[in-house]
Amino acid sequence: MKIIDNVYLFRPDKVENMKDIYHLVIDNGIIQGIHKGCSHKSGDEVIDGQQRTLMPSFTDSHIHLLRYGLMKKELDLRKVTTWDEVKMIVHDEYLEKEMEEHEWVVGRGIIDSQLKDIDHLLTAKDLKELKLDKPMFFLHDDGHECIVNDVALRIIKKDKDIAKYHDRFIEKDEMGNWTGRFKDTAVHFIKFHFREKSEEEIYQAVLAGLPHLLEYGITSVHTDDLNYAGSYDKVWKTYTDLEKQGKLPIRVYLHHYIYHLEDLENFLENDPKRTGDGTEKVRVGAIKIFLDGTQRLHTAAMRKPYQDKPETNGELIYTQHQLNEIVQLADDQNMQVTMHAIGDRTIEQAITALEKVGTAKMRHRIIHAQVLGHDLLERLAKLKPYIEIQPSFIMEEHDRTANWVGNDLEKYCNAWNSVDHLGIPYTSSSDSPIGYLSPMLGIHAAVNRTDLLGQPEGGWIPDEKLTVRQIASAYTETPAYLEFQENFRGKIEIGYAADFILLSENPIEVGSQDIKHIEVMESWVGGERVYKK
């Protein structure tokens, strides 16, 4: 038995006196008692909470944990500002004579549109300046675009399926030659088929990422790792091995990315596990599907042409019939579906597919849902799929959104308070390593709708601000429903798992612009402390 003594409580689902001190009684990883005042007991089982604020620990319902861990071991180019700096970093890291035979030069997080010393986007031709006769792969910060060199192009072209199925996402010059730039599903294809990691690399990358989760109070993740692993079995083995070895301090739900209906059929035929099945800490998540691209690349599918690129309204990856088939089969086989859908045309397509199967049984999800409309909100309110939002995205995109969608549609972008008001369930997440991993930064963005400097003043579309309680619930209680664990996790209640964090300050009581400064002092999972600052 343990007693967590001398703490304040912040329970997003309850309004209570924030000045009351409590102590919690925990036994066998379960909360057995919640009592006002300090405990009268003493001894090793009593842990002094030092009047920290105790709240449920966070769930990140949309993350790429393997990719995040890999970034800790590969070139991080997120902060470079010049092409010369990129070349210097690569040359400092890679010496051809010391590289293994099949090793690639890999950089992640590059934003080549912001490089100050060149006036064009990088292509394979530019990568020749690195003077390494090795395949190269540079991934954009948002994960939806990559640049490869001529050596990599020769390898990639050997697989005819990339041109057969992903030709529209392969950039070509005026002569029809591949430039070395790829978008959206073509990027996923390259990662899956040519950037596959060994079991040891996957193991070490996941292990490297775990401490960062605990530092931010994240004790459960829903992660899409298949692109870099090559097989679901390999991902499953990594996480369950870590669990058996006592090295997995969090709870994990593993998504299965698919492209074709046949991918889903193969999984269902060869793996008996379904959503929610697994071990104590590792369980099957959802079938993951990309329905469109991004607004930055003008590949998110819109119902009207882009304001700043009127010759296009984006790309739907599937026909309605193809998507209906995938969703229907998954639902019939008790697999949850989670769909990447950013543009309003894509969200409409996802809604139509879900309306045919319903959402009550499997609690299907729509990821991002960034561009909505009055009609879409009405349909979502009736259907009630779970929307997975990423608040930190608006800190980087708020000043570009109107350029993409136009002023009339801007008010329906990231319309989280409207979603909440209509009773549409939603969770909050990072999409890390694309977005900020810290939930506190996500809470800051949702409550203020500003960047870290407080801009724009008063917040972007302030009517869509969320309260601290609303967004905190989206990080704690609501994700437990997606896990079918709503009677076990996500709350500080008797009978629930003792998954909680201790905060330096109460997010309800600080100024809204100070939320981002709140620190996680301790993280607990199943009644065991797994992190202490």
Question: Explain this structure to me?
Answer:
This is Amidohydrolase YtcJ. The protein contains 20 helices and 22 strands. It is an alpha/beta fold. Helix 11 links the parallel strand 15 and strand 16. The two termini are 23 Å apart. The relative contact order is 0.13.
List the helices and strands and how they pair.
Layout: E1 2-9, E2 22-27, E3 30-36, E4 46-48, E5 53-56, E6 58-63, H1 65-71, E7 75-76, H2 83-93, E8 105-110, H3 124-127, E9 136-140, E10 145-148, H4 150-156, H5 161-166, E11 170-172, E12 178-183, H6 184-194, H7 199-215, E13 218-223, H8 226-229, H9 232-244, E14 251-257, H10 261-270, E15 282-290, H11 320-332, E16 336-341, H12 344-355, E17 365-368, H13 374-383, E18 386-389, H14 394-397, H15 401-405, H16 407-410, H17 416-421, E19 426-428, H18 439-448, H19 468-475, H20 477-482, E20 500-503, E21 520-525, E22 528-532
Parallel strand pairs: 1-4, 1-5, 6-13, 7-8, 8-9, 13-14, 14-15, 15-16, 16-17, 17-18, 18-19
Antiparallel strand pairs: 1-2, 2-3, 5-20, 9-10, 10-12, 11-12, 20-21, 21-22
Domain Amidohydrolase: 45-531
InterPro entries: Amidohydro_3, Metal-dep_hydrolase_composite, Metal_Hydrolase, YtcJ-like
Protein name: Amidohydrolase YtcJ
